[in-house]
Design brief:
Elements lengths: L4 H7 L4 E2 L4 H7 L10 H7 L1 H14 L3 E3 L7 H6 L4 H30 L5 E6 L2 H5 L13 H18 L3 E7 L2 H14 L3 E5 L13 H8 L6 E7 L6 H9 L6 E4 L5 E3 L4 E3 L8 H10 L4 E2 L7 H14 L5
Parallel strand pairs: 1-10, 2-3, 3-4, 4-5, 5-6, 6-7, 7-10
Antiparallel strand pairs: 8-9
Length: 320
């Protein structure tokens, strides 16, 4: 029985909390992610570490979490020596590890605390993530639609068949690619959520307006459940919420990065970024601007999600 986004939104007073960065959580556990497989390498070799990160986010207050499958792609895994059956098993494992962590946390803590049963979001990165050259922050791959469909199809099937509650097509720079992914999800009969990577609060990284994207996707996509923006600097989130809301009645989600710049050569984040010590203040602003879900992306950790949880509790306190 899959958990429904609408049910969790109701249980959380319309203030859903998304988890934070998988890569940052793994790095805090001492994991090294320097090759093109990134977090998928840890999923393949040390899945217990992935489970530990999921548990940390549940304990911090997350009502939903993203499977460790953003960089787990069939061509990427096969290029690193895994057979097709092994690659498919690794992608499926990302859901299994999440579900194990969810059950463990629920039995030990969640049920007694009266928390919502967390949503499992089957994480699907864009084609640019597979290229491992920072293309998810640029778009314009110059790839034929048939190539994109083949790339996305099987992973979406595997994540859905493994038991994800929704498919999450995240860090998407391109409306054209998103429309291809939406078609796949609709054909599967899978509920899904789309989140764009953006250059500012109005435009995706490929140059589409968020309002136009929201307007187009809100038509003839009955299984689409939420739209959002992620892995984009936090200072753009409030405007991004307004931009999306101008084109859709669907719930809106934001989960930014730290505002630093990704170096695809060193696989590290560079620059000062925003002061994430004030993440709770940001979260309050985004909820008050109309976001239905708030969390963190690259360079955020369980400590930031805990701040979002504290803000949510304060907003829902009687008299507020």
């Amino acid at each position: 029985m899959r958990v429904k986004l609408s049910e969790v939104l109701t249980q959380t007073g319309g203030h859903l909390i998304i988890d934070g960065s998988m890569s940052t959580g793994l790095a805090q556990l001492g994991c090294t992610m320097k090759d093109s497989l990134w977090t998928a390498r840890i999923l393949a070799e040390q899945p217990e570490k992935v489970k530990e990160v999921h548990l940390a986010y549940f304990r911090a207050g997350a009502d939903c979490g993203i499977t460790c499958s953003y960089q787990a792609t069939l061509p990427g895994l096969e290029a690193h020596g895994y057979s097709l059956p092994e690659a498919e098993a690794i992608i499926t494992r990302s859901v299994k590890v999440f579900l194990e962590a969810r059950k463990e946390w629920w039995d030990e803590e969640g049920r007694k605390a009266g928390r919502a049963y967390p949503l499992c979001l089957g994480g699907c990165g864009p084609y640019g993530a597979y290229l491992a050259d920072g293309s998810e922050y640029r778009g314009h791959y110059g790839v034929a639609p048939a190539v994109l469909k083949q790339f996305h199809q099987r992973r979406a099937e595997l994540l859905w068949q493994a038991g994800a509650d929704l498919l999450l097509f995240e860090t998407q720079p391109s409306l054209a690619e998103v429309l291809m992914e939406a078609e796949i999800a609709e054909q599967l009969g899978a509920d899904y959520w789309i989140s764009f990577s953006c250059k500012d609060g109005q435009f995706t990284n490929e140059g589409d307006t968020l309002t136009d994207c929201a307007r187009i996707l809100s038509k003839d996509h009955p299984h689409l459940r939420m739209l959002g923006v992620n892995c984009t600097p936090p200072q753009f989130m409030t405007e991004a919420i307004a931009s999306l809301q101008q084109g859709t009645q669907l719930p809106v989600a934001v989960y930014p990065n730290s505002g630093e710049i990704y170096d695809a050569v060193t696989k590290t984040w560079q620059g000062a970024g925003e002061k994430l010590q004030s993440f709770g203040t940001w979260a309050q602003e985004w909820y008050q601007a109309g976001a239905s879900a708030v969390g963190g992306c690259c360079q955020t950790a369980a400590s930031h999600i805990k701040k979002v949880y504290e803000v949510r509790q304060a907003l829902l306190r009687p008299g507020k």
